[in-house]
Amino acid sequence: MSNLAKLSGEFIELTSPGPHVLLVELARFWFKYCRVLEDISREPDVRVVVLAFVFPKLFSAGIDCNKKRLSTARIYPRVPERCPFPIIAAIHGVAYELSIDIIAACDIRYAASNAVFSIKEVDVGLAADIGTLARLPKLAGNQSLMHGLAYTTRKFSAQEAKKMGLLSRVVQGGRDKVVKAALDTAKVIAAKSPIVVIGTKMVLQHARDHT
Description:
The protein contains nine helices and ten strands. By secondary structure, it is of the alpha/beta class. It has one domain (2-209): 2-enoyl-CoA Hydratase, Chain A, domain 1 (Alpha-Beta Complex), CATH 3.90.226. Strands 1-2-3-5-7-10 form a six-stranded mixed sheet, with helices on both faces. A four-stranded mixed sheet has the order 4-6-8-9. Helix 4 (98-104) crosses helix 5 (132-140) and helix 5 crosses helix 6.
């Protein structure tokens, strides 16, 4: 994965903790995130990506309301879905607004027990129309719950997020624990046939939106 070293920069760090596994650590959601993931998707040696944030107490507090950033952010949630390989989100600490847009598009979602979520866009004069409102009702299967969370911006815990279907696992501890758990799963997936895993992701995505 030597070609990927040049993609690391001020706001992103890429490392390979195991064969065919890439750990993508962000310092913020910024406009080059889309381009980096698209570049990664063309790397034949990558089979699984784990997505995390570098800050121990924060996954992301939300979107940068700069007009250029806001416009570009509208394509963020589609990027994980376009990647041919699975993306595992390792969530910890505060995960507000755009965090949910991003992680809802990932294939697998783990959270540390200290994670706190909020669909907080209403409080800053926005609708969560970048991905949360489209994906979360399908994941949770509870329209009433989603309406309540979106209208009130109520915070909810990792345990509640798992119960509603946003998460598949809650890991006791903080950032390091959840990243390790996500990497362990990534290494298991990376050992499988990459063609079969890619095909499985395509079928699962198609089945979600089609009869």
